[in-house]
Amino acid sequence: DAKTTQPPSMDCAEGRAANLPCNHSTISGNEYVYWYRQIHSQGPQYIIHGLKNNETNEMASLIITEDRKSSTLILPHATLRDTAVYYCIVRATGGGNKLTFGTGTQLKVEL
Amino acid sequence: DSGVTQTPKHLITATGQRVTLRCSPRSGDLSVYWYQQSLDQGLQFLIQYYNGEERAKGNILERFSAQQFPDLHSELNLSSLELGDSALYFCASSVAASGRSYEQYFGPGTRLTVT
What we know:
The structure holds two protein chains of two kinds.
Chain A: E1 9-13, E2 18-23, E3 31-38, E4 45-50, E5 55-56, E6 61-64, E7 70-75, E8 84-92, E9 105-110
Parallel strand pairs in A: 1-9
Antiparallel strand pairs in A: 2-7, 3-4, 3-8, 5-6, 6-7, 8-9
Chain B: E1 5-7, E2 10-13, E3 19-24, E4 31-38, E5 42-50, E6 53-57, E7 64-68, E8 74-78, E9 87-94, E10 105-106, E11 110-114
Parallel strand pairs in B: 2-11
Antiparallel strand pairs in B: 1-3, 3-8, 4-5, 4-9, 5-6, 7-8, 9-10, 9-11
């Protein structure tokens, strides 16, 4: 699975959009981009995933660049409850489903 | 609530002992995964089972073993425990073993403390 690079930490004001970047320059054609988050030692929570098109669900939007070498997770209106570590994971479709977690981005949402 | 349950929530035991962690996957999910999260290693994949059979192995120590039962619940057995085994252990489940894009749903974890 391709390696990802994320900033170690980010701050965001409550009510504003949080834009979390992820670089995955070695991604290959059959690899999806997944985002999970972990709120203070709770189990990781699935947020969204995509292959090459932008995706949106009730939690977030995922923007993947045309060359697929980077992506951005957007939380449109961040709240204090969105404070968490956000993990960007690239995973191939074959060979099992294991997730390889990096160090993620610690997002702190403040008043 | 992800629908994945894990017991116990907390476990405190001594070095050299053996413990069993239990996981019940979401209804309908056939695949179960175990992950370990320690302060120095982060979240690491240990092992995956699909419909009762081992499917993939990660950095799982030989002192650790797992199985998935016919009712699809899974147990992770940790033996000859060492201080370094203190960690959060998460179970996750998904519909399938591999393929397009099956997301995993994680349980709340078991916090193991070895003293």
